[in-house]
Design goal:
By secondary structure, the chain is an alpha+beta fold. Helices cover 55% and strands 16% of the residues. It has two domains: 206 residues, 2-Layer Sandwich (Alpha-Beta Plaits); 197 residues, Hypothetical protein af1432 (Orthogonal Bundle).
């Protein structure tokens, strides 16, 4: 009987374990589904913006929106003027269709909105309908690819049939959005007119940009002064010719194909857009009782990892990893308080591919996020930096009021007792805490010791 009882207990224990494993697996799947849903929504906005982010007025009137920074591209494709009696116009039109199909593919790759095609003039705009800070760079990259494609196609034919003049300008504009199933955009304003004029004064085979676009892309591209364009009421507008990507950012010297340095620098600029998305998510979805783990704390950690990172001499690649990990390190609080670091990694895995992060970068970011679990035990420099940034407040003059917000947060969840008990716990924690980087040690360690004395005075020790 005893043996049967033991076997029954073992079976029950096994079933309990299996049940718990199923619960854990179900939770992982739930989080994964949430991450995929998040990724899908971002993809809709970023890759197919027109399909879901804008709707026309039910009365049929266009929905009018204003944009502060849009980069407009005009391309005039020469070829028809070469028509002769010996030229097969049908073949020529078929070739033009193939060119435009490839141009559409390039625009989609760079999240640029095609506006319209009028004969052999092609018009597109970056930064609509989803606003972003990187649209000048993306439009110039698209222009270089369009130019390279046309050149390669012409070489393949063995004769110069197609040439192209490209004009680009960046500025504010107004967009009229209409349509239901297929959204169309009618953009108006000085920015559109100037882009068209820049293209008009350009030369065949050249990409000419205004000084406004030049100032936003010059770090990435080799540009040569082209001339001045008189603009009514605004004086002369300087123009530049884009000749290619700078050698340090191109795979084969100055050219069209970006390298890893380009990708990192681009993502550091793009980070502003990503940060806006995540901070907006935190603002809307974080529970009200998070007085410490709030938007301000995330911004503080993002700022601090960059400061410590530069002081510690890490590379641009690692700064990108650090800032992205800092942005997501507490985002998991939108899912659950406990194990929020893990939930943050799941959100990162769902969202970051939309912004072009590769698997290796995402894996590294997730490892850095997990390093912020308590108690901190970092294994490398990046993990040391984020751990120091996460607990930077321990060595700041506002340590006690910040600490009190964490106490209030824990108190509302019944995770801590009285304020005196909390202060005693704080003294114990801070006394045993150490900053890991030489930068944090030199900046915060002395003041941290002062905070210990201040708390001891509060509790009368």
């Amino acid at each position: 009987m005893s043996q049967e009882h033991d076997q029954l207990l073992k079976r029950i224990q096994k079933l309990v374990r299996q049940n718990q494993e199923l619960i854990d697996e179900n939770e992982k799947l739930r989080i994964a589904v949430e991450a995929l849903t998040e990724q899908n929504e971002l993809l809709k906005k970023r890759i197919r913006p027109g399909a879901d982010t804008e709707t026309a007025d039910p009365t049929g009137k266009p929905n009018i929106r204003k944009f502060k920074m849009v980069t407009v591209l005009f391309a005039n494709i020469d070829g028809f003027y070469k028509l002769t009696d010996d030229t097969d116009s049908v073949v020529l039109l078929d070739q033009l269709d193939e060119v435009l199909i490839e141009f559409n593919r390039i625009l989609k790759k760079y999240h640029i909105q095609k506006i319209k095609t009028i004969g052999d003039t092609y018009m597109a705009a970056g930064g609509i309908p989803v606003k972003n800070i990187t649209n000048p760079i993306e439009v110039v990259m698209a222009a270089l690819e369009m130019q390279a494609y046309l050149k390669k196609r012409t070489e393949g034919l063995g004769k110069s049939i197609w040439n192209m003049r490209l004009g680009i300008h960046t500025g504010p504009l107004t967009a009229g959005i209409s349509g239901k199933k297929k959204i169309s955009y009618d953009i108006k304003g000085d920015t559109v007119n100037i882009a068209h004029r820049v293209q008009g004064v350009g030369e065949s085979g050249k990409i000419v940009i205004s000084v406004m676009t030049y100032e936003l892309i010059k770090e990435f591209f080799i540009c040569e002064y082209f001339g001045k364009l008189p603009v009514k009421y605004k004086g002369d507008l300087e123009m530049f010719e884009v000749q290619g990507i700078r050698g340090e950012y191109s795979r084969n010297g100055a050219g069209v194909t970006p390298n890893e340095n380009f990708d990192t620098k681009f993502k550091l600029i793009q980070f502003t857009d990503l940060q806006e998305i995540i901070l907006d998510k935190l603002e809307k979805e974080l529970p009200d009782y998070l007085y410490y783990h709030n938007v301000k704390h995330t911004v503080d950690v993002v700022t601090e990892v960059e400061l410590i990172g530069w002081a510690e001499g890490v590379s641009d690649d690692d700064i990108l990893i650090l800032k992205t990990a800092a942005l997501f390190h507490d985002a998991g609080h939108t899912v659950a308080y406990d194990e929020h670091e893990y939930h943050g990694t799941m959100l990162a895995r769902g969202i970051l591919p939309v912004y072009g992060y590769n698997e290796a970068q995402i894996e590294k970011i997730c490892e850095v996020i997990m390093a912020t679990r308590m108690p901190p035990s970092p294994k490398n420099l990046l993990e040391k930096i984020i751990c120091d940034a996460d607990l930077d407040y321990l060595g700041r003059s506002d340590m006690i009021p910040v600490s009190n917000t964490l106490y209030k947060e824990l108190k509302e969840q019944d995770k801590i007792g009285t304020l005196t008990e909390w202060n005693r716990l704080q003294v114990k924690f801070i006394t045993g805490h150490q900053y890991f980087t030489s930068t944090a040690q030199s900046l915060r360690e002395v003041n941290k010791q002062r905070q210990i004395e201040r708390i001891r005075e509060l509790i009368g020790d």
